[in-house]
Design a protein that fits this description.
Length: 321
């Protein structure tokens, strides 16, 4: 497909709480948006009907004839090769043929499916903190921990669209059992709910509003609360070990961290950078930088569009590459 600067991509970002859609232009701008709540506890057809509503709203706009491809970022696991998704938080979708179902509702436009961590990575590489970097790990640290890789200047989704899923690398060999079935995973230590649990177990008391979120733990840590500070220090240590392993395996130059937990700022980033020195020790790994993500909640849409543009050759070389 020739580069076409007027081409648009219809992007979908499918998560456990919302299904967002947008028409995205070649500069990463979101021209039209649509959104529905995810009926996550209902059966698969009902969830698909919500996706269809979003697509119908996008198709109704006058810009739709310029759409050349569809980019889909979904909560994982995804199987891009098979065109199916099985999001942990959407039990009605197991091996659900999302590519085929979306294709039926978009006139057969070519579609690209990636996991949400890979989508966020594509966005940060295109217009965010990893822009201009040839080798990067980008991570979302939130309710879960996901990620993706840029290698040799290109997004590296892997055969099934899940490469770079750092949340389920083990950093604690005999650690606690993870929801994925493994043990001692990064997510089991560094996700928001596990940070909060660790702080509570160590004696942190939530404030009068009863807020038990990682953001509340971060506020307590900033105020000098020791159990709260220790919970973030442990999360930072797990992330540092995972980043160091990645740097040692594939020589990344930067690790970009987004998601709600990254909003803790220095409470997370200061111990993370310090602990990284303990684990990223070899000369080629020790220079890895750690940066906060630049794109917020639109990263999934922008990145789904970027992944589709890369696969289908739209927009020439994206500026980030
Ligand atoms: Zn795991």
């Amino acid at each position: 497909m020739p580069a076409d600067s007027a081409a648009l991509v219809a992007a979908l970002d499918i998560g456990g709480t919302k299904i967002a859609g947008a028409l995205v232009d070649g500069r990463g701008g979101l021209l039209v948006r649509a959104q529905r709540p995810t009926p996550a506890r209902q059966d698969g057809a009902v969830v698909m009907a919500a996706v269809a509503d979003v697509l119908r709203e996008l198709r109704a706009c006058g810009l739709w004839p310029r759409v050349r491809a569809v980019g889909i970022g979904s909560a994982g696991p995804v199987d891009a090769a098979a065109g199916t998704v099985s999001p942990v938080n959407v039990p009605g979708w197991r091996g659900f043929p999302l590519i085929a179902e979306v294709g039926r509702r978009t006139g057969g436009l070519p579609a690209t499916l990636v996991g949400d961590g890979v989508a966020m990575t594509a966005a940060e590489h295109w217009t965010g903190a990893a822009r201009g970097r040839a080798n990067a790990l980008c991570m979302v640290v939130s309710t879960g921990v996901g990620g993706g890789l840029v290698l040799g200047g290109r997004l590296h989704p892997g055969p099934t669209g899940n490469a770079g899923h750092i949340g389920h690398i083990s950093v604690d060999l005999d650690g606690e059992r993870c929801a994925c079935g493994g043990r001692g995973c990064v997510e089991r230590i560094a996700s928001g709910p596990h940070i909060a649990r660790r702080a509570l177990d160590a004696g942190w008391l939530p404030g009068p509003d009863g807020d038990r979120s990682a953001a509340a733990v971060a506020a307590a840590a900033r105020a000098g609360n020791e159990p709260a500070r220790a919970a973030f220090a442990r999360a930072a240590q797990a992330l540092a070990a995972g980043i160091a392993a990645t740097a040692t395996l594939v020589e990344i130059e930067v690790a970009v961290i987004g998601g709600g937990v990254a909003g803790a700022g220095d409470v997370l980033f200061a111990p993370l950078r310090e602990r990284l020195r303990d684990y990223a020790t070899l000369s080629f790994a020790s220079g890895v930088e750690v940066l906060p993500a630049r794109l917020g909640s639109d990263a999934g849409l922008v990145g789904a569009a970027a992944a589709a543009a890369q696969e289908h050759g739209l927009w020439g070389a994206l500026p980030g590459r």
